[in-house]
Design goal:
The protein has 235 residues and is an alpha/beta fold. Helix content is 50%, strand content 11%. The protein has a single domain, classed as 3-Layer(aba) Sandwich (Rossmann fold), CATH 3.40.50. Strand 2, helix 3 and strand 3 form a beta-alpha-beta unit.
Length: 235
């Protein structure tokens, strides 16, 4: 009995070590693959991608109960707006979680960019960006994006760019780290991101699931009207 238990423990430890090594390998591969497509600012982005970017995809993040975007989301929005204002793209796609009436990242992002004088006709809304994977795949399948820049923090960019490139979008990333974030918060995000890279590596290369929701196509080259979810969004 002791020999059986010992053998089982050895096999378990071996498998655990193999999984950890595979996880590190996936993370290193994703970072190495994506980093050459990531810029630190709009000048670097123009040199990297040119000035014919189809859309700036701004990925959602936490919104407070009062409807205000959290600091990370503010920085993603400001970075995407800078890309637009530098005329590197003519449209913005706001993709986030609007899964319930009580929680709405997307319209909070919309209000923020409207307050920065971005015209409504240049702003598309994706209400079903429940994850990075969903946001990117929906940008391809619903909004028919072909060439994009993704605005999010550096820790998050490699995964977003990797998913986009592997799905067929000519994607670039721009770092949205406009301030120092709390170390405790970043430590938690980095650990979660390490695991998320493994999950999305398997999603995009092996399982290839559809997003939680698909729906009718709303081409980024057309009108943004169909992406707005209620009458007051049209104003």
């Amino acid at each position: 009995m002791k020999k059986v238990l010992f053998k089982t423990l050895v096999i378990f430890l071996f498998l655990l070590i193999a999984l950890v090594i595979a996880g590190f390998g996936i993370n290193i591969h994703m970072l190495k693959y994506s980093n050459k497509y990531i810029a630190s600012d709009t000048d670097g982005l123009k040199q990297l991608a040119g000035d014919d970017i189809q859309v700036a995809i701004i990925l959602g993040a936490y919104v407070y109960d009062n409807g205000q975007p959290c600091p990370m989301l503010v920085d993603r929005l400001l970075t995407g707006i800078a890309v637009y204002n530098e005329q590197l793209t003519g449209t913005i796609l706001l993709s986030g979680d609007h899964g319930t009436r009580g929680y709405d990242e997307v319209n909070a992002m919309k209000i923020y960019v409207f307050n920065k004088d971005i015209p409504k006709e240049d702003v598309f809304l994706d209400h079903a960006g429940f994850s990075t994977y969903d946001s990117i795949i929906r940008s391809l399948k619903i909004f028919e994006v072909e060439k994009a820049v993704i605005s999010t923090q550096e820790y998050h960019l490699a995964r977003a760019v990797y998913i986009a490139r592997k799905s067929g979008i000519k994607a670039y990333g721009i770092k949205a780290d406009l301030r120092n974030y709390p170390k405790s918060e970043m430590s938690r995000y980095i650990v979660r991101e390490w695991l998320a890279r493994i999950k999305d590596f398997l999603y995009i290369n092996v399982f290839k699931p559809d997003p939680v929701f698909l729906g009718d196509k709303i081409p980024i080259t057309g009108s943004s009207d169909a992406s707005y979810d209620k009458p007051d969004d049209m104003q």
